[in-house]
Design a protein that fits this description.
By secondary structure, this protein is α/β, with parallel strands linked by helices. It is built from 13 helices and 7 strands. Helix content is 46%, strand content 13%. The strands form 2 sheets. Strands 1-4-5-6-7 form a 5-stranded mixed β-sheet, sandwiched between helices. It has a two-stranded parallel ribbon with strand order 2-3. The termini are far apart.
């Protein structure tokens, strides 16, 4: 009842920051030494059933040399979550914080499965599944990475949430972030509509509107970027990494471009999108994924 009441009233930035700070404090720490870590964890809850774009974008970012601490979970209100897709790609999830830290420090990518690192929240997971609707925990997921992440790419399911999430990130000391929601309610930078975003850079914010046409891409129907279950979503990602063209690739290069920009590889979103396309053309994300599989 508390979760539903809070959902109805809407959480204030101060409440969200307090919840997030408390969850971080009680999380199992991940002793990473690598600096300037990036996370691409979104809220989910948009009901669009796209393939898992944020996980694919994180792998592209890591293939470019960015240290990625990917915070994620299994599906709660969608066909698959980032953890489901991660495993479907042939990668292993570890519950050992030292092992995850070593993966990030040595190989540039680690997956932080939320229930392992937030044990106090395991009882909440059952309640969330029973409720089957968005709750405050959709918002808290991207804000509670147990690793010392200072750079974040966060999609939210409603444009009205953008200022609140940015405010919380500032409170939590995030150095660089892009928070966005599309005009058709995707928690991704959309191919089907324009996307509102706020860029946070060392405490300074700037609002931008992102359109596929900015990058020479045509708008496509939302149906064109659907995913499915974990195996289907993983196959979509593998096909893109193997060179397949089309709407799935187009939406991925935009979102991966945001990760490359916020991660510090490029100095603008447009340059990030170009770099993401180049990496895919050169096959670097597929080679990186194969290396990651081999060392796990």
């Amino acid at each position: 009842e508390f979760l539903l009441a809070l959902r109805e009233r809407e959480e204030t930035p101060q409440e969200l920051a307090g919840f997030a700070a408390s969850m971080r404090k009680h999380a199992i720490a991940v002793p990473v030494t690598r600096r300037n870590l990036l996370d691409t964890c979104g809220t989910g809850g948009d009901g669009a059933h796209t393939f898992n774009i944020s996980t694919a974008a994180a792998l592209i970012a890591a293939s470019a040399g960015i240290g990625v601490a990917k915070h994620g979970n299994r599906s709660v209100s969608s066909p698959c979550g980032s953890a489901d897709v991660y495993e479907a790609l042939g990668l292993k999830i570890s519950s050992d914080p030292g092992a995850v830290a070593q993966q990030i420090d040595c190989y540039g990518f680690g997956f932080l499965f939320a229930p392992y690192f937030h044990p106090a929240m395991q009882s909440v997971a059952r309640i969330r599944r029973l409720l089957g609707v968005r709750t405050v925990f959709n918002l808290l997921g991207p804000l509670t990475n147990p690793a010392p992440v200072k750079r974040q790419v966060i999609g939210v399911y409603d444009r009205a949430l953008i200022p609140r999430v940015v405010c919380v990130l500032k409170e939590l000391g995030t150095e660089e972030a892009l928070v966005f929601a599309s005009h058709d309610h995707l928690d991704e930078i959309a191919l089907s509509a324009d996307t509102d975003a706020v860029h946070l850079h060392h405490g300074v914010t700037s609002a931008i509107v992102i359109s596929p046409e900015d990058f020479g891409l045509r708008k496509q129907a939302l149906d064109s970027v659907r995913g499915g279950d974990a195996l289907t979503s993983a196959q979509v990602i593998l096909d893109i990494f193997d060179g397949k063209l089309g709407p799935h690739r187009d939406i991925l290069v935009i979102n991966a471009g945001a990760a490359l920009w916020i991660g510090g590889v490029t100095n603008s979103l447009s340059a990030g999108v170009r770099e993401a396309a180049t990496l895919l053309t050169q096959g670097e994300p597929r080679r990186y994924l194969d290396r990651l599989r081999a060392v796990q």
